[in-house]
Every structure is written in C-alpha cells, then in structure tokens.
Design goal:
Arc Repressor Mutant, subunit A; 2 domains
Length: about 230
C-alpha cells in the first residue's frame, strides 16, 4: 500500500453516537479500564443494577456500554444467564497481537507522512505526566495513557478503518498482558516511556522507516508469559 504524501488533519476515532461527552461513552471507558487492569476479573458476573450504582450511571447507559464491550469480545452476554467478563484465552491474545503488529507498524509509517503537526502534538500530549504515573505505580493511569498513545498514532495515519482496528486489538491484548505478566520495574517503565517518546520524535522527523522500526521495537515480541499462561 502506497503512503500518500498529503498531510490530513487527524480526527478522533470514534463512532458518531459515542461522543466522549456522552455518559454512555464515559461508562464504557470506566468499565473498559476496569476490565483491562483486572478490577473486573475474567468470568466475573456483571449485574447491570450493581454496575449502575457502582459507576453512577443509568441502566440504559450501562447496557449500551456492555453491548459495545461485547462487540469487542471483552464481555460475554447470554440470554437467561446474563453478562460476564470474557475469559482470558492465550490463543486469542496471540492472534490479536500478530494482527496488532501488522496494523500498528503500518500505521506508524503512514502517520510519519500523513499526520498533521497537530496530530503529532496530540500524540506527545498523551505521554504528559508519564513519570508521575510511574512513580505512583498508577496502573489505571498508565493503561489509559498507553491506549491513548496507540490510538493517537493510528488516528494520525489518516486511515479510520485501521484506527478502529487498533482500538479493538489494543483492548484484546492489553488485558492479557496486565493479567499474566509480571509488573515491570520502575526502570523498565521509564524505558518504555522513552520508547514511546522516540516514536513521537520519529513521526515529527517525518521518517516513516524509522517510525515503523521504533513501533516494532516498542511492541516487541509476543510475551512468553502469555504464551504459556493457562486459559482462565
């Protein structure tokens, strides 16, 4: 696929009915993060009334959020059974990671050419406060930051279809890594933050080859800890 030389202004990747200001979108985001970081555990039963009280939202918003999470494969909804957090499946995680590598490395190359200056500034902005979150060992903030960064890079590619794929693939892999891998040390977290900033630098330099290489390094290989983890 040829990289277009035009620099299009990036727009936030979302479905039109899921504007960030909407309560259902905010409920979705909070539920999503709790699933990714393991506060809501694999196999846990999700009672809509309990969730509405816990997240201070209406039943309609909770149901909409759960429906979206079901489309992403993060919760399972069954008639007469209810909704549960989806189990962890290493095989699915591996497949999602392979797809994610292909898509995100390509998006990085596209973003280096097609991304606007504003889009690259937005990518850098997702990393603000990274050191503070690391020092506080704030897993929620770090997970939110990582997602925002990768989605911002995909958005800067100018390809909405690829960007939407990155959102789903990121969610599918992040929860496996956080649930099965040993938490990184402070030095490892700082090194990862530096790699993220190096990618932003490559994009700002308008160097697609370097951007693809840095993204490949940032993503790394499929973790052995996930390969060997049992299905929950």
């Amino acid at each position: 696929m040829n990289v277009t030389a035009s620099r299009r202004t990036a727009q936030p990747q979302r479905l039109d009915e899921w504007a960030p200001s909407l309560l259902k979108a905010q409920l979705y985001g909070r539920l999503l993060l709790d699933i990714i970081i393991g506060t809501l555990k694999p196999g846990e039963q999700l009672d809509e009334t309990v969730l509405a009280r816990r997240y201070d939202g209406g039943l309609a918003g909770i149901r909409d959020a759960l429906a979206r999470l079901a489309l992403e494969g993060l919760v399972v909804r069954k008639a007469r059974v209810g909704t549960t957090v989806a189990p962890l499946d290493p095989a699915e995680a591996r497949d999602a990671f392979e797809a994610r590598r292909l898509v995100e490395i390509h998006c990085a190359g596209l973003a280096a050419v097609a991304g606007s200056d504003a889009a690259i500034d937005a990518i850098r902005a997702t990393l603000a406060g990274g050191e503070v979150a690391i020092d506080k060992d704030d897993r929620r903030a770090l997970a939110e930051m990582d997602e925002a960064f990768h989605v911002a890079v995909a958005t800067a590619s100018g390809n909405r279809t690829l960007a939407k794929m990155v959102v789903t693939l990121h969610h599918q892999t992040a929860r496996h890594w956080l649930s099965t891998m040993k938490p990184p040390s402070r030095d490892e977290s700082l090194a990862a933050l530096h790699e993220h900033r190096a990618l932003a630098d490559a994009l700002a330099a308008r160097d697609p080859a370097r951007a693809r290489a840095v993204m490949a390094q940032l993503l790394g290989d499929f973790p052995d800890t996930v390969k060997s983890s049992p299905v929950s």
